[in-house]
């Protein structure tokens, strides 16, 4: 169209598509361009602001490596990653939440009742629950990939002092869907704020903290895989997770237990003298 | 907010801003997030599609260098660059259009009536006009930075066989605002389609062509600088510029002239035997 104007540019964009364009490609790109155009018109985006945006993306590209994904982080702090998760969650199942960049391949096996903290110090947390379907029926033998931060706030892949498999474990629930393990509390940590996404957080007066959480990927044949996180209800950042990962149904409670009450049947049974905390969290999968 | 949902996530995002946030930063980021969220909800963006987007940005970062700016190219082919230009054009002045990546610093001086084609072959084009204000009054001594493609479709900065100043010139208009020079026709060319932006064009069934054009940056004290391009009305891509740069008032006409009619007062006067074309194009600046 010869006469492109600020009001018709979205229509011109749409008119450029080839006739054989995949309908979904056309739908997504048209909506993307329309929202981008609406955004620019609505805020009357200036050339200087446009250049700030180009410079931001360029710097994000420069800092991105296989280990540091600044574009995912941008999506996370803008809430886009969480929104995509929520769009594809099943209401009756456990909500999904962001995978994050700290999952490792080939996690070591963790027996039911096994200990994930190994030699790390701290109050013992006993986590248990049942993997079940949306009708409440236990799902036997689901696979649960579990990971969390060490007490220093770092995941194993960030910390040269940790074994790569530290605070990672792969459990198979029993025939009644039960899973159980011991660990120490995961802790709050900050997303990387030394790059361009950190500049956005600072410009917006936002902190880079995430509430502490346990990560789970739960898989069982015939069910949709669940990628999620669970958060303790006493975490100071529960209401302001910088990546918007918290959902009502992903909040767990550490229930304090008296000294001497630690149960049998765990790898560390008989070795826990003091108080400990118990978490009961069921994982509900939707049918595939 | 503990209970982030797909419907309230934009409000949660807005609630995270610090109290001292610059109002413009808050306005732009809020609108950006809201449009991004609306886009994702509207198309029900899937995890796989989200990953395609992250992969796209990552690859764009990888291919971007000081000479190859894939993020600018993305903005160009989505129409965002042109929209920002149009948002800040003055209706009574000549429309602005995209700067593009091929401008060079320190262009060589080009006298009024000078020849920009130098030793290149081709039918001579005589371009002239007046730089004037929005009341029609000539602006004396405006500076006009002019550049274009060589006949092979390449700008000097793309072409190791051209001098870096080839088809670039810096002219100062006379006291009556007149500018004039000779050249050969600029030619159509493609934007770089060998990177991720090329993948978008192919997926959309779009070609990578731009209609031929002359670039101008016009500056004069007391006036807003004008960055623009002018396009011939007989160009096959006039109605489908892949970067949306054409505006009604930026279309020029090559008027064919008979042999032997080339005027005096030009650097190449007396050396033009055959036919040539004449272009008359006034450049209208808005007051600063």
From TrEMBL, chains A, B:
It holds the Pfam family Dioxygenase_C. GO terms for biological process: catechol-containing compound metabolic process. Keywords: Dioxygenase, Iron, Metal-binding, Oxidoreductase. SUPFAM superfamilies: Aromatic compound dioxygenase. Residues 127-155 form the Intradiol ring-cleavage dioxygenases domain. GO terms for molecular function: catechol 1,2-dioxygenase activity; ferric iron binding. Its cofactor is Fe(3+). Belongs to the intradiol ring-cleavage dioxygenase family. This is Hydroxyquinol 1,2-dioxygenase. It comes from Shimia isoporae.
